[in-house]
Amino acid sequence: MRYLILILFTYVKCDPDYFAKRNRIVESELRIALGGNMSLTSKENEVNNCLMRHKFDELDYAFNNPDNFGLSHHFFKYKDNIPKSKVYKIIKDMPKGAILHIHDMAIIGPDYLLNITYMDNLYVCLGKQISFLFSNKVPNTTCENRWELMSEVRRAAKNVTAFDAKIRKQFTLVVKNPDIVYPTIKETWTAFGNFFSTVHPLLTYRPIWEKYFYDALKAFRDDNVYYVEVRSILPNLYELDGTVFEKIVTAKAYKKAIHKFMRDYPDFVGAKLIFAPNRKVNRTILSEYIQTARQIKNSMPELFAGFDLVGQEDAGNPLIEFVPQLCAATNLNFFFHAGETNWFGTMTDENLVDAVLLGAKRIGHAYALAKHPVLLEMVKEKQIGLEVNVVSNSVLSLVRDVRNHPLNIFLSLNLPVVLSSDDPGAWEADPLSDDFYISFVGVASRLADLRVLKTLALNSLKYSALDPAAKTLAITHFHSKWNSFIENFDCRSY
Amino acid sequence: MRYLILILFTYVKCDPDYFAKRNRIVESELRIALGGNMSLTSKENEVNNCLMRHKFDELDYAFNNPDNFGLSHHFFKYKDNIPKSKVYKIIKDMPKGAILHIHDMAIIGPDYLLNITYMDNLYVCLGKQISFLFSNKVPNTTCENRWELMSEVRRAAKNVTAFDAKIRKQFTLVVKNPDIVYPTIKETWTAFGNFFSTVHPLLTYRPIWEKYFYDALKAFRDDNVYYVEVRSILPNLYELDGTVFEKIVTAKAYKKAIHKFMRDYPDFVGAKLIFAPNRKVNRTILSEYIQTARQIKNSMPELFAGFDLVGQEDAGNPLIEFVPQLCAATNLNFFFHAGETNWFGTMTDENLVDAVLLGAKRIGHAYALAKHPVLLEMVKEKQIGLEVNVVSNSVLSLVRDVRNHPLNIFLSLNLPVVLSSDDPGAWEADPLSDDFYISFVGVASRLADLRVLKTLALNSLKYSALDPAAKTLAITHFHSKWNSFIENFDCRSY
């Protein structure tokens, strides 16, 4: 009793509005944040209650047992545990809208690529790095060892399982001890570069390419993603006899695969291409790239979404090197990678300035944006979509503990964020669900709920390159998928 | 020639104001940022040129050789390389103003503590964890082994160097393989807790305590820091005969040490005490703490700066538990730890709300603040000092690569930041220079220059608890130290 009186006694000395003021602050931050203005139907609220119960369970356990919170470590350390999460299972089943930042050659994972090595006419060079090439005769390109028929090498292997495991390793960055293997961004990007070198000749064999992208679209649809904007360097496809095609042929192969896929799956909204060649080139080559982009835009306007430059941003040329040329090409629609860096105040960091000034419709990554208050306002005002790839940024050595990812700031300011997965095949992640899960549980506020997930899904359509009419249709389509997800939701099945 | 024409041809298609617009963005971000409004004298500009030449050398080398950029790793991995840096040497020589966030029992490093173990009347208990106690007879407190005189144990050791090395290890968190030893915040804080348990009975022996804080002030002055606000749990001091004193005695010992130090070093500005007991207590104990704070404030008003609560923030009680009591005690001046967490949207995270609403003069760490746009505005408006401890946050497992530390955002928005070092003795860092160096090179923009360093030093006085007249004097004193640093600066000596 004395204790109670003491509390009351001290309490009266408090500002009587203390808790009201406190609520106002907490609530206004939630209202400002992404999703904060959305209201949910009563059935959506039921789903949300189920979702949040599981989210709180996961996070509160982790808070009390931080040594059991995997998401503070490298993605490779916890990725295999994700499927156990109920929150993850709900997210997996949820329509997630579109995927807007994905690189074509790293969409599907290593098992798919291993299967390709079972195809006929594949030669292998078992050098320090393993190389492949489809050919109807022994390739005459350099091989530090000698070119052999893959089928024969495999047949000669003592243990095919072990042999295939070794081959599979070439198709993934995943390792058991990532902190040892990838101590800095240099080792990570070296491995990443090697991955692309190895995969390139497997996928660019023309018959495979056409099938591969169809299968990639299938993977997205299976993950409840219904529209895709794919970035491609437009690698030159080749035939068994050594014929090499121009980039326009690759673009046409895209068109063909997309058409076939949409015939087979009429509920799919579609796919578009962002031509995204390497940024580490001189101005002459860049001019050729811009020419190619124009050519594709003119001949396949419905396929062509826009233009970008790719590769490790710190190691490539900054945008400012190309400003005069890019100024002259703004009608191509820019979707530049910018700010995928930890180096504050460098030329790379300033790519964000040029991306904004060059009128980019969206920015790839924008990881460094939170340090740039002026640009941040411009991004918000101009509604430049930010394609955030949390898992990629973790795997590619920008951030380890995802709770430190600047997406949490982007969300708190309701910046025009879309979530994407960059190169999920290279790190054996889901097409999109892993990124949604990690962003929702590991990055966003504990209090972020279904409204955040739904807004992120809607953002992916809002900031897409679809023309206004198609965008409206796509959003209607999303709502129909979403409503059926909500209607059929049964908390007991998670 | 054709190439040039091509460039010119494309160039004319550019917005003629492109580069002017670009400069305006870059410059306005620099102007908005901390230090952006300061102008330098011509001699300061010379110093700045020297400083920035070395900074660019270091950063540009690291940018091109990211595998050689230590600051992306754990502090323990690179700390021994810091003294080689010329930027560091300049910073070391530079007056850095005041230190406002430091915990008394972890100011001086393990060698100092090892020396204490050579004193008479020290008993040791060589259990799983080593315990110490000064006493004039064998202690009767629990010991899982048996209490022995330290001098005898050392004499009996086969190899005194190895024995001392083992003892020294008890006084530091530094290990060769931090990523293995400290995989998560749990292991780090367990080790940190053990550190304090071990050190506590060594330092709280009354004669040592009085000398220790004097020596701590000496260490700050040697690092060009001239004013100190020290946080203390006010541990109960004891004598050889087992007498234990009340907390007020510890406070008096502070007063005595400070007076003696200022007599010996008349150029020192002074020191004040923030009473900061552990936050993991019930309301009754908290009331006692508040009483003690009042008692010290009344009896030694010139010593007492304010009140705080300490300990691992996630594991302790959130401020909201104590709001009624704290509301009634705002005249104590609050300097709360708040937002020293990675858990967005939790009760811990919301400590920031209560710290602001309870009228805290400064906030300790505020690590989570960047995710809170409303609070961020309030902090700026109310000019609540943010005591940022980058090395501490790295060692205590909030962030690994310091380039991801939110200080970069605080700097870009010119929030009321002061740099501090928290517990440098526990991780064998400088009193303050390491934190300044790492913040300047590893966190701030590459373009951040002497104006940032000078502003940070001035901020430490501006946001101190000195009364207005004393503050003015302290700032005048700083300018005099600063001017002599600038006048005597010789780039060739670095």
What does this structure look like?
The structure is a homodimer of 494-residue chains. With 494 residues, chain A is of the alpha/beta class. The first copy, chain A, has two domains: 89-107 and 210-484, TIM Barrel; 112-171, no CATH class. Chain A is built from 21 helices and eleven strands. The first copy, chain A, has helices at residues 2-12, 18-32, 42-64, 75-78, 86-93, 110-116, 150-156, 160-169, 178-181, 185-203, 206-222, 247-264, 283-299, 323-327, 351-357, 373-382, 390-395, 407-412, 433-443, 450-462, 468-487, and strands at 98-103, 122-126, 130-134, 147-149, 227-232, 270-275, 304-307, 337-338, 362-365, 385-388, 417-419. Chain A has a four-stranded parallel beta sheet with strand order 1-5-6-7. In chain A, strands 8-9-10-11 form a four-stranded parallel beta sheet. A three-stranded antiparallel beta sheet of chain A has the order 3-2-4. Chains A and B meet through helix 1, helix 2, helix 10, helix 13 and helix 14 of A and helix 1, helix 2, helix 10, helix 13 and helix 14 of B. Chains A, B: This is Adenosine deaminase. Chains A, B: It is found in: Secreted.
Chain pair sharing the greatest interface: A-B, 74 and 74 residues
What profile does the largest beta sheet of chain A have?
4 strands, parallel
Uncertain runs of chain A are: 1-12
Could you tell me the strand content of chain A as a percent range? 5-15%
Spatial order of strands in the largest sheet of chain A: 1-5-6-7
Name the structural class of chain A.
alpha/beta
Q: Helix segment count of chain A?
A: 21
Helix content of chain A: 40-55%
Q: Determine the CATH superfamily of the largest domain in chain A.
A: Metal-dependent hydrolases
Give Rg of chain A in angstroms.
Answer: 24 Å
* Domains of chain A, number: 2
Q: Write the CATH fold name of the largest domain in chain A.
A: TIM Barrel
- Top CATH class of the largest domain in chain A: Alpha Beta
Q: Which CATH architecture of the largest domain in chain A would you pick? A: Alpha-Beta Barrel
Cα distance, first to last residue of chain A? 46 Å
Mean pLDDT metric of chain A: 96
